[in-house]
Amino acid sequence: MATAIDAAQVTYEAPDLELAEKFLTDFGMVKAPGSDENTLYMRGIGTQHHIHVTRKADKQRFVGAVIEVATSEDLDELAAMEGSSAVQEATEPGGGYEVVMYTPDNVEIKAIWGREKVEPIEDRAPFKMNTVSEKRRINEAVRQPVAPATITRLGHFVLHVRDHDATVKWFFDRFNFLPSDYFVPPGTDGDPYGTFIRLDLGEELVDHHFMLILQSDWVGIHHSSFEVTDVDAVMASHDYLLQQGHKLDVGVGRHMLGSQIFDYWKDPFGFRIEHYTDGDTVNHLHKPSKFNGTASDTTQWGSRPPLEFFE
């Protein structure tokens, strides 16, 4: 199976690219080269050429996601699977090569290799935290202005699917994914209706989840999630987005599964988008558990999502 190494981008369609750019800039992204009147490419401060794409269209919709793989041979392996395209030159800025696939719900998943890396954008270092047992910030002060966060990268995305088991199998047949944790019906020990998926890079540390697949009666994206520097970046950006009149969804709080400090917003087209920081990192030794609480129980402290949050 192919070795996935990064979540490269999420792709949407929307009727107003100027409105999209304004929100995503306020959210902490930077317009990337190659953008024009038909397509908006936004990057973070990391080395991915772009991490968020909006194509101009009459109606808003989620198109799909792009997964970076380790080698060109990974693309050859994926291209040989039923329903995959041939290996072809990528058409988006940054180039490279890609294979186009579709999940059982017809969500577009591209695997990409060889896309140009860009120079990272300089950012402040994370603030050192002083705890009761360890004092790491000495003769230094925290000074965080209310301003947009600086997005580092796309961390994960969450898909609503009609057939959880078939979709999980589809991804596991193609990529080096492992389960991190499961959602099971509240108060039961039943079969999973949600699976948190992570990369398998052996002893190398990876995020607790790269993706969450949720059984649902509709198909699409629940949210896409972007990592920021630290908790001060989350909180200052929260204030800035409120000042700019953007729509808060749920936040700030700390998740149970993955432990991230989160802040969810709605973009101008109704799509949910998340800032996060301080998530769990795991390796191949991590063992999945089953979570049988409600949506509200997924928050340890802070703003709790409503019961219908994952529906």
UniProtKB/TrEMBL annotation:
SUPFAM superfamilies: Glyoxalase/Bleomycin resistance protein/Dihydroxybiphenyl dioxygenase
Polar residues: bias regions: 291-302
Keyword list, A-Z: Metal-binding
Residue ranges of every copy of the VOC domain listed in the record: 153-278
The keyword Metal-binding is annotated on this UniProt entry: yes
Chain spans, region Disordered: 291-311
Pfam families referenced in this protein's UniProt entry, alphabetically: Glyoxalase (PF00903)
Origin: domain of life: Bacteria
InterPro entries in UniProt: Glyas_Bleomycin-R_OHBP_Dase (IPR029068), Glyas_Fos-R_dOase_dom (IPR004360), MMCE/EMCE_epimerase (IPR051785), VOC_core (IPR037523)
PANTHER family according to UniProt: METHYLMALONYL-COA EPIMERASE, METHYLMALONYL-COA EPIMERASE, MITOCHONDRIAL
Name this protein carries in UniProt: VOC family protein
UniProt organism field: Micrococcoides hystricis
